[in-house]
Amino acid sequence: MANQSQLGFQDASSPIMEELVEFHDHALMVALAICSLVLYLLTLMLAEKLSSNTVDAQEVELIWTILPAIVLILLALPSLQILYMMDEIDEPDLTLKAIGHQWYWAYEYTDFKDLTFDSYMIPTTELPSGHFRLLEVDHRIVIPMESPIRIIITANDVLHSWAVPSLGVKTDAIPGRLNQTSFITTRPGVFYGQCSEICGANHSYMPIVVESTPLTHFEHWSTL
Length: 224
Known about the structure:
Layout: H1 15-47, H2 52-55, H3 58-87, E1 94-101, E2 104-109, E3 116-119, E4 141-144, E5 149-155, E6 160-164, E7 169-173, E8 179-183, E9 189-195, E10 207-213, H4 215-222
Parallel strand pairs: 1-5, 4-10
Antiparallel strand pairs: 1-2, 2-3, 5-8, 6-7, 6-9, 9-10
């Protein structure tokens, strides 16, 4: 859950999000090094007059051609690794289907019989004390922690997007098409997200709440 005046990401609650945060820090340090080098060269050019030999040197041209290529490789390799990890879905323990409607989400637990429900945002006037305004729903998604979860995402009317920042998940919901992604929660807790596609007038009233619980609690919930 994001805090007021927060500058960084939400606390990572899945291995994919941990990798994304680490890659962000890596790319930020590379950008900081490039900006520092450019600032130093600009200061040097303003403070000292460079000779024609320095400006026309082939060694300098070789360096500023090879160095950016090395930087791009250093950014591309971890990025491709994360993309592969995000697309890899291997024998999930639970499959969940999310269907976007105007303007609420419907969920189906495909591994269970008749375990389906609609998830509506709780209006502010009915919100219990201590709950988050515009983020709490009447029916949360309950999943077992430390278990691979596959989620199939589609829409019934217009474009939507199923996104939970702390889990590193963001997938478009497109009518007539099934998109899928996977995640694993590393700790118990309640994770909040929202529709990240401008889907209409009530776009901001489609929250997503994922509750991660131990397996025994999930089994008890699924039998209720």
